[in-house]
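pasting for the record
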Amino acid sequence: MLKKIGILEASAVGRVHSRVCNLLLQCRCFLQANAGVSTIEWVALAAGLVIGSIFVSFILMKGLAGAANSVANQLSP
């Protein structure tokens, strides 16, 4: 009976050890992999540029509305 308990205990320790080693390996791979982080940065940069360009074009259109109306009034017969 004691041998069985010792074997079970040793196998449980081995399973815990392998899980810890796998977790540490996955953490190290995640920290060393830069592809995912740089992809997220580029997506955030692209989204910021799109939102910024929409904002700038909205401001320009609002600012040029008066000048465009006066030119259109002068061109109408």
